[in-house]
Amino acid sequence: MRSKVVITVQAVVIAILLSLLLFQYFNGASYFKTQTSNYSSVPQNSLISPRLYTGLIEPKSYLIVNFVPLKKELQAYIKENNLTMSIYVVNLRNGASMSINSYRPFPPASLSKVPIAMLMMRKVEEGELTMNTPLEIEDADKVDSSGTLYLSSAKTLPLKTLIEQMLQKSDNTAFKVLLRHLQKDDEKIINTYWDYFSTDTTPEPEQEYGNGVITSRSVYNVFLSLYLSTILEPEHSEYLLNLMTNTTFEIKKIAQLPAEINVVHKFGLLEENRINIFHDCGIMYIQEMRMFYCVMTSNNENQNKGIQHVGYAVNKIFNYVVETRKSLDAFKENPDGN
Amino acid sequence: MSSSSIISLKLKHILIIENILLLSLIVFSLVFHPSFLGRTVKPTVSGNLLAPEVYSGINKGKNFLNFNYAPLKKDLKYYFAKEKISAALYVQDLQSGSSFGIDEYRSFNPASLNKVMLAMVLMSQLESGEISWDQPMKLVRNQDYGNLYLRTEDQFTFRFLFEKMLTESDNSAFYSLLPLVNQDRASTFFEYLDLNGNSPNPEDYQLDPRTLFNLFQSLYHSTALNPEDSEYILSLLTKVQPSLRIQADLPEDILVAHKIGVLNLPTQEYRDCGIIYHHESRLFYCIMISGEKEARSQQLIVEIVKRIYTYHIAQEKHFKEYYTPLCAPNCRSPNFNKSNLRYLSE
Questions:
Q1: In the list A260, B43, B65, B118, which could disulfide-bond B96, CB 3.0-4.6 Å?
Q2: Chain B contact for A261, CB < 8 A?
Q3: CATH, residue B80
Q4: Tens of pLDDT along A4-49?
Q5: What is the pTM assigned to this prediction?
Q6: CA distance A122 to chain B (A)
Q7: How many folded domains does chain A comprise?
Q8: What is the domain range of residue A325?
Q9: What is the CATH number of the domain that holds A224?
Q10: Which of B6, B56, B277, B342 to mutate to test the interface with A (most CBs of A within 10 A)?
């Protein structure tokens, strides 16, 4: 009798282990291969978007295209509070956009951690590094301005830990370690491919900002490159996006966004030479909508004011998108308003 | 041997087999665990944060789509200044979503681009059954553009006039179709696409190139019409004469779905907005020129479109060729200038 019980229990354990292995196999390594590619269904001479034929956009979707009311509201807020602010919003499903001072140059602060993480993943893909390659931490790397890695006594840390600390906790020690591994070829991607340090600014950058200025548009290039996985394998882009959904700076709380939506984002904060900077840029995933936003500020009264202004703008963007979607859905149901 | 001892022996065998299986499974799981024996730790992937276009195969990963239009913008600004052109321009890559503009919020009378708006509103009414393709329409003659006013017939079908309006920009066709517009539908349509213009006076109706993108993107993504109807309107716009593709000497495998607008006011106004199709690339452009004679405006637009197309293709080719071959780990130059990344902080 006892043997029978042991046999049954063991059989159950084996079954569970086998199912777990099978699940890991089908859901893990082959995740991207199992995504069905239906691009072949697009007629060769089609003049409309292939997204329609592949089912990514439904016909008569009334995707959001008009951001004028939002622009007016945010412009009034900027004027009322006498802010130095740039805002760029893009509906990633159709490319419709809204911009306020989107060519205005700003120092990047920690937003540069996103392109650096992407370039590190590229090195992994090229076989130059692996996710667990130990990277040396020099004393000069240890900075206490953001993150806690400077407290660590470790002489080396794996690349994976450094990328995760840099993106999720905005760790400056991790950033400095990774920065040492950038090379000439990476500069070409930063400058020529993304135009991250923007060459298209209005007005010309102030001297105190130096040459390394970015605009909300140039940040868009980096996020778009990540979202469309244009320089990385999809699983690596997905990995980085996933890290940025869970960061120490809680934009959802600051902007009073619902807990159930995903926001992939990176913030940047800098108090140097009396330039009080706060930025937050990312992608809001609201049901089927994908909304890129980038709000950049400088000359804020203090750090809290900067956070407050960015939170206000992000909240307005979210609410506008949700409300507009609702009214367009109602219009879809009844185009003549009868 | 008693039957109970046989059963007991069999149970023992089963137990041994199960133990071997269990042990193998544990060993297998350990050996194939990513971090075992220092193998690469793969990033954990949750899925669904990337663009669905990547998974559907529309945008393949690592395709180095072009995002950087700053050099083209600089070049065109220089060209506008050199030729002393008063113009506004907006360009958007429909594949990647990146864009740039020169004076893109400067408003102009849209001229015959109104015909695309009318076509979309009427198509929407066709879809709801308010009008039909074979419906006979009385010809309203207008001599400003097109030659339909010269015809002796007084009546044409809706389809005939619709096609004439888009392919030949015929004003008689436009004015013949105009009375069919359902005002309620038109106003919601205009509001949806932000096409109402800034002036309350209809005489001063003006739009900018950036706003006209809304109209073409709606057609391209078929956001307000059935896909076959959007496809039909775009196909008519590829037949517009004179052919921009031929004028700009673009390759034969390129299609341009576009609409021209000409206003012979004292200021001489010329517009051209459309989509350039080249293999998988889709480029929207909208150019509005003021103060130049029609023939010169045409020449200028041909040159501008040529520059946009050439830059886009060159950029795409450059990045694909440069990055596609796998770069060996030691092929990089070690002298990266990090001074631009000096803004640390949080």
A1: B65
A2: no
A3: 3.40.710.10
A4: 777 787 778 778 777 766 655 544 433 333 344 455 566 778 899 9
A5: 0.84
A6: 10
A7: 1
A8: 68-333
A9: 3.40.710.10
A10: B56
